[in-house]
Amino acid sequence: MSRDAGGDYDGRHMGCSVTFHDRIGRDRITSAVEPLAHDAAVGLLEAAVTEAARTALGQRACEIELTLCADPEMERLNFDHMSERGPTDVLSFPLHDWSFDGDGGHAHVTDDDGGIGPPGAPLLLGDVVIDLDQAVRQAAEGGWSVVEELVLLAIHGTLHLLGHDHADLEDEARMRAAEREALGTLHRRHREIDWQPGSLFDRAGHAVTSGA
């Protein structure tokens, strides 16, 4: 599961700018997300990232890098940054330290974080990298579409950029609630997708557990 650790498609939605990096090839992505068109799938992933950011951060302007890669690149990243062999589904590379409101709501950059940038400038949050090969396998095992799996991973990875984690039950409950809120909005806005119920935490076969 996600932990901290080609051509570009740029879009702006809800104050969040997402730069999409294709490291696997348009044809490979197109084949994986059928019957959804390539550009529609990319747009949906962008919406997933920005909705997760809005859920955790509010309306503050921000920038996020989102990359789709294949097993070989993810295996290298997983070993270099997590000291683990083999691929994983998603890795997040946050640029800030975060704290949460007293009610566990919105995330805030900690007072000692020196990388906020000038006032009014969008906050660069970091990178989310998703292994498309692993997403295809997990979707097949779970019985839902690849694009839905990618959306789940994009939301999960984005929340990790914003300080969410599942190291203990309290952290997991907060992250689970944020995932469900972001997914609920996407379900209402994108009825063309045959959504299955539940967040990443709720899906059988996903080892998102406390202490992970």
Describe this protein with a few key phrases.
alpha/beta; disordered C terminus; two-stranded antiparallel sheet
Report the top-level CATH class: Alpha Beta
Supply Rg.
Answer: 16 Å
Terminal-residue CA separation: 8 Å
The H/E string reads: EEHHEHEEEEHHH
The main sheet comes to:
5 strands, mixed
**CATH fold-level assignment:** Collagenase (Catalytic Domain)
Number of domains: 1
Mean pLDDT: 85
The appropriate CATH architecture is 3-Layer(aba) Sandwich
Strand order of the largest sheet: 1-2-3-7-4
Name the beta content range: 15-25%
Would you report the number of β strands?
Answer: 7
Percent helix among the residues?
A: 40-55%
CATH level 4 superfamily: Metalloproteases ("zincins"), catalytic domain
What is the overall number of helices? Answer: 6
Structure notes:
With 212 residues, this protein is of the alpha/beta class. The protein has a single domain, classed as Metalloproteases ("zincins"), catalytic domain (Collagenase (Catalytic Domain), 3-Layer(aba) Sandwich). β1 and β2 form a beta hairpin.
Brief sketch in words of this structure:
With 212 residues, this protein is of the alpha/beta class.
Question: Topology of this protein?
Answer:
Elements: E1 8-13, E2 16-22, H1 26-33, H2 38-57, E3 62-69, H3 71-82, E4 90-94, E5 98-100, E6 107-109, E7 123-131, H4 132-142, H5 146-161, H6 169-189
Parallel strand pairs: 2-3, 3-7
Antiparallel strand pairs: 1-2, 4-7, 5-6
